[in-house]
Amino acid sequence: MTRPVLLAAAVDHLAAARWRFASVDIDEDSDPPEPPIPVPRPGDEAAPDEPAKAPQAPSPNELARFFA
To answer: Would residue 17 count as lying in a domain?
Structure first.
């Protein structure tokens, strides 16, 4: 796993957290917010019609290298 993939995963997790917070913090009568669209991964050749797969969790070594 490379740094751009880890960065895309971090962005996806932040977007999901913001979406969850916005979903809880809205008026009961208003429409729910649209769920976030995952950031494309480098080298990901998935067709736009295919649903996005959940990214794999990085290993502890990959996280340590990323934040070093």
So the answer is: yes
Is 9 a member of any domain?
A: yes
Number of domains comprising the chain: 1
Would you list the DSSP string of 10-30?
HHHHHHHHHHHHHHHTS-TTS
- Token pair belonging to 28: 């009961």
Kindly report the pTM of this predicted structure. Answer: 0.53
Is residue 34 one of the residues assigned to a domain? no
Query: Per residue in 18-33, pLDDT tens?
Result: 988 988 888 888 888 8
